């Protein structure tokens, strides 16, 4: 039996909805294991909630410090991704799966097979931590919060 193009589109859409993939990010999966060289990297003490650090991270994130570094161009000024595939930092259940070392590794080295590039040549270690501290606020209603909700993957 031949299906028309319209029937195929409708059937495909129904399958996506039935599978729970009708929009937004894919089901929440833990990040891959952190490489050994990044396992001992941790947010400096007090930086998760330090207003000065977060404000500096915001300036970097929004490209105000360096126009060549503008995280908001993909991840959105308000944390709502502007580009397909960009991580949505507002999803707390996803972000709590990322240890500080995993988050640092992803920003530093980028993410293979995605548009997320490595920022290690454009940002210092300190600047990367500041950006991460700011990004973390998105999953806490735009307010500073300790990353004590981190839930290691099983």
Structural topology:
Blueprint: H1 5-18, H2 51-61, H3 72-75, H4 92-95, H5 100-109, H6 125-138
Q: Any descriptors?
A:
single chain; 154 residues; mainly alpha; Cytochrome Bc1 Complex, Chain D, domain 2; 37% helix
Query: What's the end-to-end separation, in Å?
Result: 46 Å
Instruction: Please tell me the CATH architecture of the domain at 34-138 by its name.
Output: Orthogonal Bundle
Estimated radius of gyration: 18 Å
What's the total count of β strands?
Answer: 0
State the name of the first-level CATH class of the domain at 34-138: Mainly Alpha
Number of helices: 6
CATH third-tier fold name of the domain at 34-138: Cytochrome Bc1 Complex, Chain D, domain 2
Described by strand count, sense and barrel closure, the largest sheet is: none
Q: Tell me, what's the shape? A: globular
Helix fraction by DSSP (H/I, runs of at least 4): 25-40%
According to CATH, the homologous superfamily of the domain at 34-138 is: Cytochrome c-like domain
SSE order: HHHHHH
Low-confidence stretches: 5-25
Structure description:
The structure is a single chain. This protein is an all-alpha fold and 154 residues long. It has a domain at 34-138: Cytochrome c-like domain (Cytochrome Bc1 Complex, Chain D, domain 2), CATH 1.10.760.10. It is built from six helices and no strands. It has helices at 5-18, 51-61, 72-75, 92-95, 100-109, 125-138. The longest helix has 14 residues, at 5-18. The radius of gyration is 18 Å and the shape is globular.
Write a compact overview of the structure shown.
With 154 residues, the protein is mostly helical. The protein contains six helices and no strands.
């Amino acid at each position: 039996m031949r299906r028309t193009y319209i029937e195929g589109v409708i059937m495909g859409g129904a399958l996506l909805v039935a599978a729970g993939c009708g929009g937004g990010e894919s089901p929440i999966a833990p990040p891959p294991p952190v490489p050994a060289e990044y396992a001992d990297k941790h947010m400096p003490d007090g930086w998760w909630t330090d207003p000065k650090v977060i404000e500096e991270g915001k300036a970097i994130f929004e490209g105000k410090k360096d126009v060549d570094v503008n995280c908001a161009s993909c991840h959105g000024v308000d944390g709502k991704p502007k580009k397909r595939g960009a991580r949505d930092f507002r999803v707390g259940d996803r972000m709590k799966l990322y240890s500080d070392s995993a988050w640092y590794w992803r920003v530093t080295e980028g993410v293979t097979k995605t548009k997320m590039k490595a920022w290690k040549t454009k940002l210092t270690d300190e600047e990367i931590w500041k950006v991460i501290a700011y990004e973390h606020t998105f999953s806490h209603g735009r307010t500073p919060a300790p990353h004590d909700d981190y839930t290691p993957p099983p």
